[in-house]
Amino acid sequence: MVLVGRTRLRSLKRHFDYVxxxxxxxxxxxxxxxxxxxxxxxxxxxxxxPGERLLPTAIGPxxxxxxxxxxxxxxDRPMETAYREINWEWQLWDGTWMSDTCYQPYQxxxxxxxxxxxxxxxxxxxxxxxxxxxxxxLDFVASNEVALLHRINLxxxxxxxxxxxxxxxxxxxxxxxxxxxxxxxxxxxxxxxQLQTHVKPLIDAMGERKGPVATRRLKVLTQEFQPDVxxxxxxxxxxxxxxxxxxVYVMESLYYGNATYVFGxxxxxxxxxSKAEIxxxxxxxxxxxxxxxxxxxxxxxxx
Length: 303
Description:
The chain has helices at about 35-40, 60-70, 145-160, 190-225, 265-270, 275-280, 295-300; strands at about 1-5, 25-30, 50-55, 70-75, 80-90, 95-110, 110-115, 120-125, 130-135, 140, 160-165, 180, 180-185, 230-235, 240-245, 250-255, 260-265, 285-290. About 30% of the residues are buried. It starts with a strand and ends with a helix. By secondary structure, the protein is an alpha+beta fold. Helices cover about 25% and strands about 30% of the residues.
């Protein structure tokens, strides 16, 4: 069965009558030829190879929630003081311009974080050897309804359709996967001007207030401490950068989470983690929040 349309689906009831409760359900895209432009927008090549897997680019509400998560705003509670990170510039008496990071207080309703599902798309083959795009299977049970709806809406937003596959309706042969979420930059010394060419579009998109703040953090991570591995996030990992310093790896988030994540894994292991696993506190050695003490905490980490 194929559910066509880019509008959001809110219920499974009318569409899953033929599926036996408890049966594994696979959401996918069966015609890759007709969706070459959509595949490019999602982060794949126009003709992706079986085994390729990535977190799709955020292009709309469903894919943005999938990659970045969301916040539940509690408007029934008293407001609280929060702080926004901005760039502050001033001019000295001799005409010299100075800049620094400023933390500006403001009032807002309390918020609870809704973590990103971080569903990754994977190119596989059907029994006839034809490539198709899928996600990991889920059992058709009540507790998985929200997750199944999200996967269907993700495919409909990205490709305009979502195929519902089960063991009875179609099998596919799994092949070994290759992660496409990261672009590993050439090894060796990575001076700031060279890295800047890779991150300039991201920094520019942050605006005049937040862009210089992120730039200062990246300069600390590349100029004050010299990484031997540098990787830039692609597609749904856009806004993330990974730096390897021997046995220590840090993953810098320009947007979501406002934090720097510290890991002890090698790059091969780290690059295979999903976004949900990266943000899971159980796998991190440390999480350094973007605040006034960030630079001191980074220096303590490397001391």
